[in-house]
What we know:
Blueprint: H1 2-25, E1 39-50, E2 73-74, E3 83-88, E4 91-99, E5 109-111, H2 113-119, E6 125-132
Parallel strand pairs: 1-5, 2-4
Antiparallel strand pairs: 1-6, 2-5, 3-4, 3-6
Amino acid sequence: MVAQRLIAVAALGLLLALVGLAVFSGRGDSGPGGRLPERIGPWRYARAAPLRSQLEGATTACGVRLRRSSMGIADPVLPCGAKLYVGYGGQDVLTQVIAAGPVARGARFGITPALAEELGIEHGVTIRWSYAR
């Protein structure tokens, strides 16, 4: 009887720990007070071009299924999930690497149609980018 109670208490403790972990990990990367992650290092500049909208529905090498609303970049070097600030004109957007592999010739980054629209990009341009913490 005592052993059953100890097992029940241990199971309850484990369950509470898992719930607590799920709650705290679900808060995202916005940090304390909902602030965005800080930018790391100086701005870098590179060519970027919108990815073809025909890729909608495809699953990237990073395991992301591309949708019309997908916001992210493709890069053949940076790891999947790397967080970056990407800017063009007067707009800066926090995004992440969601695809790996080749992009348009002459471009370092491929940007999803949704991100291109957010930044006002219609064709290959030079963007600024920086790592985010």
